[in-house]
Amino acid sequence: MQATVEQLQQILILSRLDPDQLSPLQTHARIKQYLRGEIILHEGDRLPSQLFAVLSGRIEVKKTTSTGKETILRSLPAGELFAAPALFGNSIAPATVVAEQDCQILTIERAALLAMIQKAPELALQIIAVLNERLQHLHQVVHGLASERAIVRLAQFIQNAAITEGTVSTEQGLELRSRLPYYQIARSIGITYEECVRLFKQIQTVVIYHRGGKILVLDQAKLDAVANGDTT
Description:
- The chain is an alpha+beta fold.
- The protein folds into 2 domains: 5-145, Jelly Rolls; 149-227, Winged helix-like DNA-binding domain superfamily/Winged helix DNA-binding domain (Arc Repressor Mutant, subunit A, Orthogonal Bundle), CATH 1.10.10.
- The protein has 8 helices and 12 strands.
- The protein has a 4-stranded antiparallel beta sheet. A 4-stranded antiparallel beta sheet has the order 2-7-4-5.
- Strand 4 (58-64) and strand 5 form a beta hairpin.
- Helix 5 packs across helix 8 and helix 6 crosses helix 7 (193-202).
- The radius of gyration is 19 Å and the shape is elongated.
- The N and C termini lie far apart (55 Å).
Protein backbone atom coordinates (compact mmCIF):
# COMPACT_ATOMS: atom_id res chain seq x y z
CA MET A 1 0.00 0.00 0.00
CA GLN A 2 1.34 3.42 -0.94
CA ALA A 3 1.84 5.92 1.89
CA THR A 4 0.13 9.28 2.04
CA VAL A 5 1.87 12.57 2.82
CA GLU A 6 0.10 12.61 6.18
CA GLN A 7 1.53 9.19 7.01
CA LEU A 8 5.03 10.25 5.97
CA GLN A 9 4.75 13.18 8.38
CA GLN A 10 4.17 10.71 11.25
CA ILE A 11 7.80 9.58 10.96
CA LEU A 12 9.82 11.74 13.35
CA ILE A 13 12.65 12.65 10.97
CA LEU A 14 10.12 13.74 8.32
CA SER A 15 7.65 15.52 10.60
CA ARG A 16 9.14 19.00 10.07
CA LEU A 17 9.06 18.87 6.27
CA ASP A 18 6.28 20.56 4.33
CA PRO A 19 3.74 18.48 2.38
CA ASP A 20 5.17 19.86 -0.87
CA GLN A 21 8.62 18.57 0.12
CA LEU A 22 7.29 15.13 1.00
CA SER A 23 5.07 14.71 -2.03
CA PRO A 24 7.88 13.33 -4.29
CA LEU A 25 8.48 10.53 -1.76
CA GLN A 26 4.94 9.17 -2.00
CA THR A 27 5.49 6.99 -5.04
CA HIS A 28 8.58 5.48 -3.37
CA ALA A 29 6.98 4.82 0.04
CA ARG A 30 5.13 1.62 0.91
CA ILE A 31 3.27 0.38 4.00
CA LYS A 32 3.04 -3.23 5.15
CA GLN A 33 1.08 -4.57 8.11
CA TYR A 34 2.35 -7.14 10.63
CA LEU A 35 0.50 -8.95 13.40
CA ARG A 36 1.75 -9.13 16.98
CA GLY A 37 4.56 -11.67 17.25
CA GLU A 38 5.25 -11.71 13.51
CA ILE A 39 8.88 -11.45 12.45
CA ILE A 40 9.58 -8.38 10.32
CA LEU A 41 13.29 -9.02 9.75
CA HIS A 42 15.56 -11.94 10.61
CA GLU A 43 19.09 -11.30 11.84
CA GLY A 44 21.41 -11.84 8.87
CA ASP A 45 18.76 -11.08 6.24
CA ARG A 46 19.96 -9.15 3.21
CA LEU A 47 17.93 -5.97 3.18
CA PRO A 48 16.69 -3.91 0.24
CA SER A 49 18.11 -0.40 0.02
CA GLN A 50 15.36 1.32 1.99
CA LEU A 51 14.59 3.37 5.05
CA PHE A 52 12.56 1.32 7.55
CA ALA A 53 10.27 3.07 10.05
CA VAL A 54 7.46 2.16 12.45
CA LEU A 55 4.29 3.88 11.27
CA SER A 56 1.98 2.47 13.95
CA GLY A 57 2.25 -0.02 16.79
CA ARG A 58 5.52 -1.11 18.36
CA ILE A 59 8.46 -3.38 17.52
CA GLU A 60 11.19 -5.22 19.42
CA VAL A 61 14.79 -5.47 18.21
CA LYS A 62 16.38 -8.71 19.47
CA LYS A 63 19.79 -10.36 19.37
CA THR A 64 20.49 -14.06 19.93
CA THR A 65 23.91 -15.33 21.05
CA SER A 66 25.56 -18.52 19.83
CA THR A 67 24.34 -20.22 23.03
CA GLY A 68 20.73 -19.35 22.20
CA LYS A 69 20.34 -16.60 24.79
CA GLU A 70 18.08 -13.81 23.56
CA THR A 71 18.41 -10.16 24.55
CA ILE A 72 15.99 -7.38 23.64
CA LEU A 73 18.14 -4.47 22.47
CA ARG A 74 15.34 -1.97 21.99
CA SER A 75 11.59 -1.56 21.94
CA LEU A 76 10.63 1.09 19.38
CA PRO A 77 7.31 2.98 19.12
CA ALA A 78 5.62 4.58 16.12
CA GLY A 79 7.67 7.24 14.35
CA GLU A 80 11.06 5.59 14.92
CA LEU A 81 13.58 4.26 12.39
CA PHE A 82 15.19 0.82 12.46
CA ALA A 83 17.42 -1.45 10.34
CA ALA A 84 19.90 1.36 9.64
CA PRO A 85 22.33 -0.83 7.61
CA ALA A 86 19.69 -1.00 4.86
CA LEU A 87 20.13 2.72 4.41
CA PHE A 88 23.77 3.38 5.31
CA GLY A 89 25.70 0.15 5.69
CA ASN A 90 26.26 -3.38 4.46
CA SER A 91 22.53 -4.09 3.92
CA ILE A 92 22.64 -7.00 6.40
CA ALA A 93 20.09 -7.02 9.24
CA PRO A 94 22.15 -6.79 12.47
CA ALA A 95 19.30 -8.14 14.63
CA THR A 96 15.87 -9.75 14.46
CA VAL A 97 12.90 -7.37 14.45
CA VAL A 98 9.54 -8.60 15.77
CA ALA A 99 6.14 -6.91 15.97
CA GLU A 100 5.57 -6.32 19.70
CA GLN A 101 2.07 -5.14 18.80
CA ASP A 102 0.06 -5.19 15.57
CA CYS A 103 1.93 -2.61 13.53
CA GLN A 104 2.47 -0.92 10.20
CA ILE A 105 5.96 -0.65 8.76
CA LEU A 106 6.77 2.10 6.28
CA THR A 107 9.64 1.82 3.82
CA ILE A 108 11.10 4.49 1.54
CA GLU A 109 13.48 3.69 -1.30
CA ARG A 110 17.03 4.85 -0.58
CA ALA A 111 17.50 6.64 -3.92
CA ALA A 112 14.37 8.73 -3.35
CA LEU A 113 15.46 9.59 0.18
CA LEU A 114 18.91 10.70 -0.98
CA ALA A 115 17.27 12.92 -3.59
CA MET A 116 15.17 14.43 -0.80
CA ILE A 117 18.29 15.04 1.31
CA GLN A 118 19.81 17.09 -1.51
CA LYS A 119 16.81 19.41 -1.28
CA ALA A 120 16.59 19.35 2.52
CA PRO A 121 20.10 18.75 3.97
CA GLU A 122 18.78 19.10 7.53
CA LEU A 123 17.16 15.69 7.05
CA ALA A 124 20.61 14.07 6.90
CA LEU A 125 21.52 15.66 10.24
CA GLN A 126 18.36 14.28 11.84
CA ILE A 127 19.13 10.78 10.55
CA ILE A 128 22.71 11.02 11.84
CA ALA A 129 21.43 12.14 15.23
CA VAL A 130 19.10 9.12 15.41
CA LEU A 131 21.86 6.69 14.44
CA ASN A 132 24.28 8.26 16.92
CA GLU A 133 21.73 7.89 19.71
CA ARG A 134 21.27 4.23 18.77
CA LEU A 135 25.03 3.61 18.89
CA GLN A 136 25.26 5.22 22.32
CA HIS A 137 22.35 3.14 23.57
CA LEU A 138 23.92 -0.06 22.23
CA HIS A 139 27.21 0.81 23.92
CA GLN A 140 25.37 1.32 27.21
CA VAL A 141 23.56 -2.02 26.84
CA VAL A 142 26.77 -3.93 26.11
CA HIS A 143 28.68 -2.15 28.88
CA GLY A 144 25.87 -2.78 31.34
CA LEU A 145 25.63 -6.48 30.52
CA ALA A 146 29.37 -6.83 30.98
CA SER A 147 29.97 -4.75 34.09
CA GLU A 148 26.82 -3.77 36.01
CA ARG A 149 25.08 -5.98 38.54
CA ALA A 150 21.66 -7.26 37.56
CA ILE A 151 19.88 -5.19 40.23
CA VAL A 152 21.52 -2.03 38.85
CA ARG A 153 20.53 -2.92 35.28
CA LEU A 154 16.95 -3.49 36.42
CA ALA A 155 16.78 -0.08 38.11
CA GLN A 156 18.26 1.60 35.03
CA PHE A 157 15.77 -0.20 32.79
CA ILE A 158 12.84 1.04 34.91
CA GLN A 159 14.28 4.58 34.86
CA ASN A 160 14.56 4.53 31.07
CA ALA A 161 11.02 3.15 30.65
CA ALA A 162 9.69 5.92 32.90
CA ILE A 163 11.47 8.58 30.84
CA THR A 164 10.65 7.27 27.36
CA GLU A 165 7.07 6.09 27.97
CA GLY A 166 6.03 8.46 30.76
CA THR A 167 4.40 7.96 34.15
CA VAL A 168 1.11 8.67 35.89
CA SER A 169 1.00 10.05 39.44
CA THR A 170 -1.00 7.97 41.92
CA GLU A 171 -1.46 8.11 45.69
CA GLN A 172 1.20 5.44 46.14
CA GLY A 173 3.76 6.76 43.66
CA LEU A 174 4.52 6.93 39.94
CA GLU A 175 2.96 4.31 37.71
CA LEU A 176 4.73 3.56 34.42
CA ARG A 177 2.46 4.02 31.41
CA SER A 178 3.98 1.05 29.60
CA ARG A 179 3.20 -2.52 30.62
CA LEU A 180 6.38 -4.55 30.99
CA PRO A 181 6.03 -8.29 31.62
CA TYR A 182 8.78 -10.18 33.43
CA TYR A 183 9.97 -12.00 30.33
CA GLN A 184 10.47 -8.74 28.41
CA ILE A 185 12.40 -7.11 31.25
CA ALA A 186 14.52 -10.23 31.77
CA ARG A 187 15.54 -10.44 28.11
CA SER A 188 16.21 -6.70 27.99
CA ILE A 189 18.75 -6.81 30.83
CA GLY A 190 20.26 -10.23 30.18
CA ILE A 191 18.87 -12.31 33.07
CA THR A 192 16.46 -15.21 33.50
CA TYR A 193 12.75 -14.89 34.16
CA GLU A 194 13.24 -16.37 37.63
CA GLU A 195 16.00 -13.93 38.53
CA CYS A 196 13.84 -11.03 37.37
CA VAL A 197 11.05 -12.12 39.73
CA ARG A 198 13.57 -12.43 42.57
CA LEU A 199 15.05 -8.98 41.96
CA PHE A 200 11.64 -7.30 42.07
CA LYS A 201 11.01 -8.95 45.42
CA GLN A 202 14.39 -7.64 46.58
CA ILE A 203 13.42 -4.02 45.84
CA GLN A 204 9.70 -4.24 46.66
CA THR A 205 10.00 -1.29 49.07
CA VAL A 206 11.18 0.80 46.10
CA VAL A 207 9.23 -0.62 43.16
CA ILE A 208 6.11 -2.79 43.08
CA TYR A 209 5.36 -5.13 40.19
CA HIS A 210 1.72 -6.03 39.58
CA ARG A 211 0.39 -8.83 37.40
CA GLY A 212 0.14 -7.82 33.77
CA GLY A 213 3.34 -5.79 33.79
CA LYS A 214 2.13 -2.76 35.75
CA ILE A 215 5.05 -1.16 37.61
CA LEU A 216 4.70 1.36 40.42
CA VAL A 217 7.69 3.38 41.65
CA LEU A 218 7.25 4.01 45.38
CA ASP A 219 10.56 5.77 46.07
CA GLN A 220 12.10 7.63 43.11
CA ALA A 221 15.16 8.74 45.08
CA LYS A 222 15.95 5.19 46.16
CA LEU A 223 15.43 3.90 42.61
CA ASP A 224 17.92 6.50 41.36
CA ALA A 225 20.39 5.39 44.03
CA VAL A 226 20.11 1.73 43.01
CA ALA A 227 20.54 2.70 39.34
CA ASN A 228 23.76 4.47 40.34
CA GLY A 229 25.08 1.35 42.06
CA ASP A 230 24.01 1.97 45.67
CA THR A 231 22.21 -1.23 46.65
CA THR A 232 22.70 -0.95 50.41
